[in-house]
């Protein structure tokens, strides 16, 4: 079977931790040929990154231990190589790119230096390295490549940094490229560009690409074959189309069903008296205009989705509405009173009505407080809501309402999974009995199946309690099933505002159309059609 | 990865039993705690118990060597330049030493932390005033301040404590401020603000608990520094004056005999090292025991050993 470029056979890795042995991956096997793209699909904790770390020899031992299996690169078992030969494989034959290029590029050296270093450590002389670095920067599409070589990583945008990482990875013309969530941190339009670049480069060099992702859309866009992992076990393998159209394992079925953007769209009721009406809000940071006059109305019990890429001003808008930042101009009337002119005492009362759920529950929950303390803090701050004797009872009620149990009260946030933590954050927001909850990317950090659950929970709260939502997201499919109105923002401006049906089915603006087409569809056939349409547009 | 399972939480024991159990799990911290309790007891009973013996001169026994098992137990560590038993003197000196060191550290930590919290959280102007004040203290040689202040106020244990505290304030102030500046931008602080929490609540309920572990570690390290600074002042004649004794003073008195009677400085030095080391180990344990994310390390260890 030496004809495969990479073959992983019966690999098992375990980690010895204080609470016992964790089997990160159990007896998994897969293979990859030259010029082929294999995707490893799984949610967090599925062990999808562990097998690639084993290939790259990046597992810390101890606590990790490879208990069985072999990794064959062109028929040679990497685990049996002596250390110096093993080192020569990394970089030269196998290269890797990571999710967050900013933390994987050294901030104190220029990008050019870092690319040249990759070349010189593997034996190139300085002059060749310099020429090659320039060629690579040009190839991956960095504007002004010559000048960019002298820049530091922070001077690039996220997408450009990922391109730089790709340039570094390709410096030694590896046979195998491992990409660990390469586009998760990027905007949709940038994600499409980076994936396209990867595909082009693969065709050029004929390398094998191993892509690790949680996103069905990425799989549909780029992969030839896919293996699905759940809790360290490989549950399904096959070509992308096969797996999507005809999933065998219940977990794969669940994963595909959870992909957002397939349900009925909301039809908002006729517009009545708005509960929040925002007019011409502006904000500048130095010379950067974050918001250039934003106006919209929000009805009671309605969901307004705010969609835009990073830097579009959507988070600034949320912070200003909650008075975490002060606007430069504009008004926002909440039930007839201007939010921006309230005194601190009035603002304190208003906090009960307006609440926020943050993007990352790991950071928005104080790690030193128990769930009970976290939720009841609302009543410590606003003592008139609930007498102290009833706190325990009400916390239990709230926990049940968000799908947790009263027995979770004494635990700390780190003892929960990401989705459960976000539920705690929602329970905390509900403790104040608000009428508007602003969700700032509240589901972006969660796994797809958990995402669906949290959105369902929010929708239930809206129906049952009449809470209005402002739902900020960078991803259009997520808001499709949940929003009544959609507001698309770009560079501090509203480019399109309308009912969810109007925005998704008949987008009027070019930017909205670009966003919609850049979004990756989990269905490989639909995605292929998207791609064809995109290429055609690019050509014309 | 979520490694924690329901086992820890089956039934939550109350705070005190939990702490005791965690202390038992860490043998080093347990030894340190026992040693410190012993030192504190010595500090309380020492002067009244051995006070007389520790100041009685005996010129025939000058610089008597240690480990002479035939004499009484107070002589086991030898005797100083005036023939006074070292063991007794160390016991008696415990009280003064701990009072000055603990007092100075506690005072400087409390004031420094409070100012640091204010500096990190309030307007840029207040921040500037506090920080420049700290710079003034830091740029002034601390011994010089001490000399001036003690010369004006006269030397007493209380004044000594005050002076040492003032010179150490900037250490806590700067550390606290730097941490506050970082923590105030964290999401959970923002979340508290959205709920309408007051500044005071955010500072003391959300920010201080995160800073505190760093500060306790800093304070235990400072303990040794303060003991030695106190001996330097005593050496200059403006700190503790004989016949009062402290460990630091004993070290500096023994310095001139270092070549022929090492034990004069060695034993009080050992006392300082053991005390600060114990404090350090205990604070290390405390840091883990009070952190809900780290706590399992101790609880797991306890289970394995027991």
Automatic annotation (TrEMBL), chain A:
Domain of life, source organism: Bacteria
Limits of the ABC transporter domain: 8-256, 276-516
The keyword Nucleotide-binding is annotated on this UniProt entry: yes
GO biological process, one term: transmembrane transport
InterPro entries: AAA+_ATPase, ABC_transp_ATP-bind, ABC_transporter-like_ATP-bd, ABC_transporter-like_CS, Oligopep_ABC_C, P-loop_NTPase
UniProtKB keywords: ATP-binding, Nucleotide-binding, Transport
Pfam families in the cross-refs: ABC_tran, oligo_HPY
GO molecular function, one term: ATP hydrolysis activity
Span of the signal peptide: none
Subcellular location: Cell inner membrane
SMART domains with a match to the protein in the record: AAA
Mode of membrane association: Peripheral membrane protein
Family membership: Belongs to the ABC transporter superfamily.
NCBIfam families: PRK10419.1, PRK11308.1
Protein known as: Peptide/nickel transport system ATP-binding protein
Organism: Shinella fusca
UniProtKB/TrEMBL annotation, chain B:
Keywords: Cell membrane, Membrane, Peptide transport, Protein transport, Transmembrane, Transmembrane helix, Transport
InterPro entries reported for this sequence: BP-dependent_transpt_permease, MetI-like, MetI-like_sf
Record keyword Signal present: no
Subcellular location: Cell membrane
One Pfam family named in its UniProt record: BPD_transp_1
Highest taxon of source: Bacteria
Membrane topology according to the record: Multi-pass membrane protein
The ABC transmembrane type-1 domain, residue ranges: 94-283
PROSITE patterns (alphabetical): ABC_TM1
Transmembrane segments: 28-50, 73-92, 99-123, 143-167, 207-228, 266-290
GO biological process, one term: protein transport
Cellular compartments per GO CC: plasma membrane
Family: Belongs to the binding-protein-dependent transport system permease family.
PANTHER family reported for this sequence: D,D-DIPEPTIDE TRANSPORT SYSTEM PERMEASE PROTEIN DDPC-RELATED, OLIGOPEPTIDE TRANSPORT SYSTEM PERMEASE PROTEIN APPC
Stated name of the protein: Peptide/nickel transport system permease protein
